[in-house]
Design goal:
heterodimer, A: about 110 residues, mainly beta, six-stranded mixed beta sheet, five-stranded antiparallel beta sheet, 11 strands, B: about 120 residues, seven-stranded mixed beta sheet, four-stranded antiparallel beta sheet
């Protein structure tokens, strides 16, 4: 089955800095890669996703890049703000809602004001 | 966006008792729902896939007789933790795809279970 590795487990940055979280996956068949943000005690919220036919996707301060050959994808947050502090999870799955995503272990992002 | 609700949000029960957690899709029909368990500072671990009108599919290591899943309608799946023990204390979250042909999962707000 799919295995997703996520690094780092904790990331501490100053407000305004950029943050990068990296994930690797094992199953070359995976073609859908979402990123979720989870605040303490709350539900995971999808913040951005990318499919395997695209190498990069950007939404305001958030971007995701995908390298299919190397089987890794990354989340980039620019101009970080204290409200970006949360746990971020990457995931990989086959496309189609009936397919179960495999989640990374999560990255706790702390943005210091 | 699609809304998935869970009830209760928090529950405390005594060891040996059972507790039922409900997961509802409020504005769409869900033939499939997923149940996850999340321990503090850990990732989401899939427990089982709930299928409307048929038996749930459990992940390896998850006891189906302990975690009973019923998906009796297209908008409701329930997870019953039977004979709960303190080690069952966790954050339980459900999710559902709004459209099986699409990718996005919508998560419920989670249920914090504490077994004393």
């Amino acid at each position: 089955g799919e295995n997703v590795e996520q690094h780092p487990s904790t990331l501490s940055v100053q407000e305004g800095d950029s943050a990068v979280i990296k994930c690797t996956y094992s199953d070359s068949a995976s073609n859908y890669f979402p990123w979720y943000k989870q605040e303490l005690g709350k539900r995971p919220q999808l913040i951005i996703d990318i499919r395997s036919n695209v190498g990069e996707k950007k939404d305001q301060r958030i971007a995701v890049t995908l390298n299919k050959t190397a089987k890794h994808f990354s989340l980039h947050i620019t101009e970080t703000q204290p409200e970006d502090s949360a746990v971020y999870f990457c995931a990989a799955s086959l496309s189609g809602g009936s397919y179960i995503p495999t989640f990374g272990r999560g990255t706790s992002l702390i943005v210091h004001p | 966006g699609a809304v998935v609700s869970q009830h209760p949000s928090r529950v405390i029960c005594k060891s040996g008792t059972s507790v039922k957690i409900e997961c509802r899709s409020l504005d769409f029909q869900a033939t499939t729902m997923f149940w996850y368990r999340q321990f503090p500072k850990q990732s989401l671990m899939l427990m089982a896939t709930s299928n409307e009108g048929s038996k749930a599919t459990y992940e390896q290591g998850v006891e189906k007789d302990k975690f009973l899943i019923n998906h009796a309608s297209l908008t409701l799946s329930t997870l019953t933790v039977t004979s709960a023990h303190p080690e069952d204390s966790s954050f339980y979250i459900c999710s559902a795809p709004r459209d099986p042909s699409r990718d996005e999962q919508y998560f419920g707000p989670g249920t914090r279970l504490t077994v004393t």
